[in-house]
Structures are given as C-alpha cells and as structure tokens.
Amino acid sequence: MTQEIKLEAEFVTLGQLLKEAGIIETGGKAKWFLRENTVLVNGKPDDRRGRKLYPEDVIEVPDNGQFIVKQQERL
C-alpha cells in the first residue's frame, strides 16, 4: 500500500520525508539511515538526505513501504 505525504511547500527533502513518515525520529538521523538502507526515489537508489522531492515522486523504503508526494490542496 502506498502512503501519501502531503506537501505544504514547493518540495520536501528526503530527510524530511523520512521523519514525516515516522521512519526516523529526527532529521539528523537521516544521514545514518540512508547510509545503511537503500532508498529508491522514482525507482533509483538515492542516499542524499537533502534530495528535493516534488509532487508525484515515489519513494520506496525497505521494510517501511512506499510513499508518494502529493501537493496539499489549498482552499
């Protein structure tokens, strides 16, 4: 099952997404998590915690699932 991560800004970083999804406790742990785990962004491995993710990007995290970035609807 794919979980949606809603964007309030133009983009979210990979480190912020990992925190938002509850995979890591703090953004500072992203560096270590990405060093030890293969995370796929749009089907390709990426270990940059500062990688900018935009709407419709798909992120796969081993043992944690798949996530898709969506733009928050504005009223």
Percent in helix: 10-25%
Judging by the overall fold, what is the CATH architecture?
A: Roll
Domain tally: 1
Give a count of the beta strands, DSSP E runs of length 2 or more.
7
The helix tally amounts to: 2
Radius of gyration, whole Å? 11 Å
Order of strands across the main sheet: 1-7-6-3-4
The structural class is alpha+beta
The end-to-end span amounts to 28 Å
Catalogue the unreliable spans.
none
Q: Main beta sheet, described?
A: 5 strands, mixed
Mean pLDDT: 93
Can you tell me the CATH superfamily? Answer: RNA-binding S4 domain
Morphology call: globular
- What is the CATH T-level topology? Structural Genomics Hypothetical 15.5 Kd Protein In mrcA-pckA Intergenic Region, Chain A
- Spell out the helices and strands N to C: EEHHEEEEE
Strand-residue fraction? 25-35%
CATH class: Alpha Beta
Keywords: RNA-binding
GO molecular function: RNA binding
InterPro entries: RNA-bd_S4-rel_YaaA (IPR014330), S4_RNA-bd_sf (IPR036986)
What does this molecule look like?
There is one protein chain. This protein has helices at residues 14-20, 30-36; strands at 2-7, 12-13, 40-41, 44-45, 52-53, 58-61, 65-71. The protein has 75 residues and is an alpha+beta fold. The chain has one domain (2-71): Structural Genomics Hypothetical 15.5 Kd Protein In mrcA-pckA Intergenic Region, Chain A. The strands form two sheets. The protein has a five-stranded mixed β-sheet, with no helix packed on it. GO terms for molecular function: RNA binding. Keywords: RNA-binding. Pfam families: S4_2 (PF13275). InterPro entries: RNA-bd_S4-rel_YaaA, S4_RNA-bd_sf.
